[in-house]
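Proteins fold reproducibly. Take a sample protein:
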Amino acid sequence: MIKKLISHGNSAALIIDKPILELLKVTINTPLEIATDGKNLIISPVKNTKRDAKFKTALEKINLRHGETLRKLSK
């Protein structure tokens, strides 16, 4: 898909079609992170920090309880 920027006041805007928003589970209220790798513009939904923290805590508990077993299984 090829898109062009449109003027929006003194800024430029990019219109993202509804099917793409639905595919990415993005709404008007979803915070987006804009980054670049020097050549490309990367737009991503902001990660859910509460969910990530909960996952990290659960992973730490698993590693404390079963770390030795997991190390043995990896060999």
